[in-house]
Design goal:
Blueprint lengths: L1 H6 L19 H17 L6 H4 L5 E2 L2 E2 L6 H8 L4 E7 L4 H13 L6 E5 L2 H10 L4 E3 L15 H7 L2 H10 L3 E5 L3 E3 L13 E5 L24 E8 L3 H16 L1 H4 L4 H11 L5 E3 L8 H4 L3 H6 L6 E3 L6 H10 L5 H4 L10
Parallel strand pairs: 3-4, 3-6, 4-5, 8-10
Antiparallel strand pairs: 1-2, 6-9, 7-11, 8-9
Length: about 350
């Protein structure tokens, strides 16, 4: 368009009353050109934003009313090739979200990220920096207690996870879920081989052979497996939906038993539905638990170059997690915050 404006013959503008012709190089022609460029500069960046996609929403000062932004709308906005990458975040964990986003951006998958905010402060903060990529599914939680592992607030925070995932599956999307205390070192999608319904990682620290089975591991003497509920990939098929429904049922039935940690309920649900869905256990070398990656230097060296997503678990405490990331060169936001879609958070 700009090429045509600058190199075409005189731009003609006719007035029904005076029949004037305005040359592009005249004063009026230049003013017209500047006005056109300003209009394009203001409105083109909004074409892909929720303002453009959902023009019937309620707006205030040219900002969407994010309280009315639904999960269906948000998923439609971020999905690429039918896939959404989901995380759930409360306000205290925004630095970890930003750290995770840098690593996701390095693998060129940030555009399909949907942040499910658990409080309004998080919802507004993210959408101010990165419009359309955060949604809140009511009710909002207390942001100051939801990040403390083992607390009632933490359980309320994590126990909503299968409800969000089930809803996205019912909307027809492939869903990858990550906790934000993770860092991507490679692209995980290359490891989602085949067309299985559900992909998981083992949370045990016992070293497996590189060619280990991709079946669900046998249960321990208590009759349960120890699969991590923090890295999941699901396809919108009957078995995956059944698993999410069973996970929700387990949480409701044993809320007092599971209070503070939703992973045992997830494993019980897995064991009870394993014969009804197509499972795939991801390779340990690519998706190591934190109890292995951060504590077994020999294994890390032997599997160098194979690590894909590192999970900073097997440690309790916000500051402890941050320090361990720093100690291992995985706290990226100190020097690379501009690589995140959120930029530098104040």
């Amino acid at each position: 368009m700009a090429h045509q404006l600058f190199y075409s013959s005189p731009l003609s503008y006719s007035s029904t009353s005076k029949g004037r012709h305005i040359s592009l190089m005249s004063r009026n022609g230049l003013l017209l050109l500047v006005a056109l460029l300003v209009i394009l500069g203001v409105f083109l960046p909004w074409v892909r934003s929720p303002l453009f996609l959902f023009p019937n929403r309620t707006f205030s000062s040219f900002s969407p009313n994010w309280r009315n932004y639904s999960l269906a709308q948000a998923a439609k906005f971020v999905a690429k090739d039918g896939t959404v990458i989901v995380c759930t975040v409360s306000y205290p964990f925004l630095p970890f979200l930003n750290n995770w986003l840098i690593s996701v951006s390095r693998q060129k998958h940030q555009d399909k990220v949907l942040v499910i905010a658990e409080d309004y402060a998080t919802l507004y903060k993210i959408n101010k920096k990165w419009p359309g990529h955060a949604v809140l599914v009511p009710p909002a939680l207390n942001s100051q207690t939801a990040h403390k592992f083992g607390s009632k607030g933490f359980f309320n925070f994590t126990s909503r996870r299968p409800q969000h995932l089930l809803r996205l599956l019912e909307l027809g999307y492939n869903v990858m879920y990550n906790d934000v205390d993770m860092v991507w070192l490679q692209d995980p999608f290359q490891y989602l081989q085949g067309s299985h319904e559900a992909y998981f990682t083992d949370d045990r620290t016992r070293i497996k052979p590189l060619n280990h089975s991709h079946c669900l591991p046998p249960p321990d003497r208590n009759g349960v497996t120890y699969i991590c509920s923090c890295m999941i990939f699901l396809r919108p098929k009957t078995g995956a939906k059944l698993l999410m429904k069973k996970w929700i049922d387990e949480l409701h039935a044993g809320s007092k038993v599971y209070e503070g940690n939703d992973q045992p309920a997830f494993n019980w649900a897995l064991n009870k539905t394993a014969h009804q869905l197509d499972l795939y256990l991801l390779p340990q070398a690519a998706f190591p638990t934190g109890g292995l990656y951060f504590k077994n230097k020999t294994w890390v060296e032997e599997t160098k170059g194979k690590h894909v997503i590192v999970h900073n678990n097997y440690i309790i405490g916000y500051n402890n997690k941050m320090k361990r990331f720093r100690d291992f060169g995985l706290w990226l936001i100190d020097d690379h915050s501009l690589e995140s879609p959120l930029g530098k958070l104040e």
